[in-house]
Amino acid sequence: MADIVKVGMADLNVCQAPDGITTLGLGSCVGVALREPGKPWGGLAHVMLPDSKAITSSGPINVPKFADTGVEELVNRLVAKGCNKNKLVAKIAGGAQMFAHATSDKMMRVGDRNVEAVKKKLAEYRIPILAEDTGNNYGRTVVFYPETGDFVIRSVGKTDKTI
Amino acid sequence: MADNMSLNDVNSMYFDVLKEIGNIGAGNATTALAQMLDTKVDMSVPKVSLLEFKDVGEIVGGEEVIMVGILLGVEGDITGSIMFMIEKEGARHLTNKLMMGMGASEPGEDFNEMELSALREVGNIITGAYLNALSGLTNLCIYPSTPDLTVDMAGAILSVPAIQFGIQGDQILLIQNNFFDEVELDGYFILLPDVESYGTILKALGIPIM
């Protein structure tokens, strides 16, 4: 029986087929799923903010929290499991704007900016994005199956879709 | 004040003050709700917790629980935002009472425009009650903007304040408030001052800034 590994907010993890990996209730955060087709391993990151260099806090940074460091760490984790960095492919979801009006400049379009930052980092690694379901104004739960590459997206009041 | 202050550094006095704001705010909100509903409303002692991002979903009953989130901007001597969350069927109970059962949607259905507008009003009153508590303790002028509302998964709604807290640290400060009339209503309240405004609040409270 396959298990589903759960990834929390500002966290990441990898799993091995036939297991799947999930993160629940993505809002403005972005879920980044990576795998190498033909390999049993896959990973999922739940990133919250675009850029680790733009924050005001001192001390060690929470790596999975940011698009730049989170994607890098996820790539490294998959490479450590024997994946080839040059053969990785990605699917992404999330980056919604949950409320119509941003209440501060820093929160302006944060969902969009998260998506852009993830794409920029993936482009640096030359990792192609095979599919995405991003933007809009609703939350998403995602489940990723490394065996098939299926990325299942569940939202309130909508039928599930697989990208 | 130091620009790089994070919530992790905020001292226990600030935490105690927030608890007090939670207490007074919840008291105000309960009175306001009772007047609005024309019924007796009780509340439990509010719980203030500083949570890791990954634990937030669990506290509110799971990331996929459908909740109503009401977000208001805050202006005046401090800037930021304030959010109130309530579980969807609890919110329905409130709107039903407010509208005296007229024009109400069925459990499980989407809210109609009238119910949404009633919920915005509830959000206004409840967050106003908290802001009055903060304003009273600090003598700062604080005005809320018009409320913005969404009905969605708890995790998705919480991503908004979590991201804002995430700019400064790795934890989120949540005030949990339970109201009772005939049913128990779990409400959650999150105060989100902009980084620059923490100093203003602490100073107004006479708390030394590290």
Structure in words:
The complex is a heterodimer of chains A (163) and B (210). Chain A has 163 residues and is of the alpha+beta class. Chain A has one domain (4-162): 60s Ribosomal Protein L30, Chain: A (2-Layer Sandwich), CATH 3.30.1330.200. Chain A has helices spanning 67-80, 110-124; strands at 4-6, 11-16, 20-26, 30-35, 41-47, 89-94, 129-134, 140-145, 150-154, 161-162. In chain A, β9 and β10 form a beta hairpin. The longest helix of chain A is centred in the C-terminal third of the chain and has 15 residues, at 110-124. The model of chain A has no long low-confidence stretch (mean pLDDT 91). Chain B is built from 6 helices and 8 strands, in the order αββαββααββαββα. In chain B, strands 1, 2, 3, 4, 5, 6, 7 and 8 form an 8-stranded antiparallel β-sheet that branches. In chain B, a hairpin with a 3-residue loop joins β3 (66-76) and β4. In chain B, α1 (12-37) packs across α4 (113-138) and α3 crosses α4 (113-138). In chain B, 45% of the residues are buried. The A-B interface holds A 8-11, 24-29, 48-49, 55-58, 62, 65, 96, 98-101, 103-104, 106-107, 110, 137-141, 156-157 and B 3-4, 6, 53-57, 62-64, 66, 69, 71-74, 79-81, 110, 145, 148-160, 162-164, 166-170, 192, 194-195.
